[in-house]
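pls ignore typos typing on phone
flavin-adenine dinucleotide + seq
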Amino acid sequence: MAQVAILGGGIAGLSAAWELEQAKRAGVAVDYCLFETTNRLGGSISSTVVDGSVIERGPDSFLTEKPAAAELCKALGLEKDLLGSNDEARKTWIVVGRKLVALPDGLMFLVPTKLIPTALTPLFSIKTKIKMGLELLHPPRPHQGDESVADLVKRHYGQEAVDRLADPLLSGIYGGDATQLSAETVLARMVEMEREYGSLTRGMLAGYRKMRAAMKGKEPRPARPIFTTLRGGLQQMVDALTAGIDAGCVRLSTPVEGLEKTADGWLVTAGGAPEKYDAVIVATPAWAAAGLLKPVDTELGEQLGGIPYSSSITVNLVYDEKRLGELPEGFGFLVPAVEKRALLAATFVHRKFLGRTKPGKAVIRAFLGGAHNEVLLGETDEKLVATVRRELQEILGVTAEPEMTEVRRWRRAMAQYAVGHKARQERIKARLTELPGLQLIGNAYDGIGVADCIRLGRAAAKKISASL
Ligand SMILES: Cc1cc2nc3c(=O)[nH]c(=O)nc-3n(C[C@H](O)[C@H](O)[C@H](O)COP(=O)(O)OP(=O)(O)OC[C@H]3O[C@@H](n4cnc5c(N)ncnc54)[C@H](O)[C@@H]3O)c2cc1C
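k done
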């Protein structure tokens, strides 16, 4: 019977454990032990229902276009609880001063593709608009190695597009800083377009035309929601996974303190004598994996330790809808770093997913911190709520007292795909070929979102089962 140690009970480790449990039940000669530092499973995924309203403390959904999360939910019997985002009401605002400015129509991620909305938007100055027009003339450019997202976007559309578009949109996804994030990893498609077309706008339009041509004569696919969640909160997925694994194989409040490679396997130390395992899946953040693996392989430990992380804070505020007053349409707003505010973004939760907030209530979820403002982690809950309320008043005019607030700090929870990330991944992979039985999963490697972590977790477990 092969023994597998899984280190870290976030969604990546939990998905790996669940997959190994399926294999075990199907008769594969495998057993596992899931070690988790804290007293709960789920890692960054944590939600609760307070007086009929779902409160998400970490992620609130996953991208529908990445199938791994919905597939897992279906396998867990949660299909009936899958809920798409209310995209009809989708509109994203960018904070400029004390005003909200809508993202112009025709924006395909970071790329403006419609002339008139781009020409008319108050989001950009005349100088930026002219640069956006001239961008169509950019000649193809061979790839010259990785660079930051800010450098790529600035070359095409200017600094204002970095400040008001790339930085807020990407910090919403990566909690990161456009001057640090890797274009090659985060904007891989645009790097490709630059090489082929020169102009990103032309590249994006050509891609769109190709897609239309490929669809010609075919039955149009029903529009899919951009985000998908679970009706009762993402904790439902954690609870179902936990129920689907053997409780006897889970060790909560048990941080792994040491890893050692032996001639025929691995020794794992967690608060007692070292235990022997045939394979190890490390599903901790990379900074924790670095500490465990440096004594095993110095180069691997250093590469892992070099992956930067950012922290963030979520503040949920539940309001009586009548007292709250009218909010602008849409799902919420993003705050560019150049605005020098504590808020990074705010979501109007009751609009984004219908039916998860008690009728008559409204939930605003604010994000703070991020790569620009880690000092906020040291503030008290009261101070953070007061800061959020002050900024909501300045931006939205909201003065109502929330009926309930909840603050959650996420320290070093989001890996940053910094410039050179792809090359670092190659170096990590090269070291892993020398360390049979070891796999690394989680948000530090090949996708930052919940669905990516599930995909990697299940694949790691399947790789072990297939080898037996
Ligand atoms: C505020 C926030 C909002 C987000 N929003 C979204 C979103 O809307 N959609 C989306 O797709 N993604 C979102 N993400 C990203 C996504 O939630 C994470 O990338 C994902 O949940 C990470 O899962 P993981 O298993 O890799 O890591 P984690 O959840 O960090 O789990 C790692 C686990 O390892 C444990 N651990 C650490 N060291 C040890 C040790 N030595 N021994 C044993 N255990 C150890 C930790 O305690 C932790 O439980 C968000 C993240 C945050 C923080």
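The chain is about 35% helix and 25% strand. The radius of gyration is 23 Å. more later
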